[in-house]
Structures are given as C-alpha cells and as structure tokens.
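Entry 14. Ran structure prediction on the chain below.
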Amino acid sequence: MEVQLSPAEVEVIKIWAESSIHGGHWGDNDLVVPEEDIILSKLKNIKNGKVDISPNEARIILTWSSTSLGIHTYEEEQVIKKLSRIAEDLYNI
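Output, structure tokens:
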C-alpha cells in the first residue's frame, strides 16, 4: 500500500531501524534480514514522499518503533498511525 511520509517521518523510521538493528536484536552482531534491507532501500529511494509498504513491512517498522522510549514525538505518532492502518491488512486476508 502506498503511504505518504514526510522527511521527518522517514528520519524517525531510520532512527528506529538503526536502534533496533544495531541494538543487538539478533545477538551481538549487526544483522540485517532481507526484509529489513528492503525497507531501508525503499526509504532511501523514496520519491515525492510516497513509498509502497506492505502490511508485513509495516509490522516490521512498528516492531522497530518499540525501541522508542514510550514518549512519542508528533512525527512518531503519525508514523505509528499510518503504519498501523497498513499492518491491519495483514490480518484481514
């Protein structure tokens, strides 16, 4: 599903990813699974603020968001709302 993301929202996702991937979520080494790499590539090549995110990719990004301290900025809240709507489609098959 195509979603519109502001530059600040994209940066929020990248910060979450960085914290999760380099925070040892797969042990002591930095390991980027293929799905995570695809998401990061999509964000790197975003055009006009629009990016195609699948429900599973949205779920992964929302998992990354758990690295946040629980007090969300406005941008974080907006990203979580947008991606939660997409992730819901994963369970509405």
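The chain has a mean pLDDT of 86. Will compare against last week's run tomorrow.
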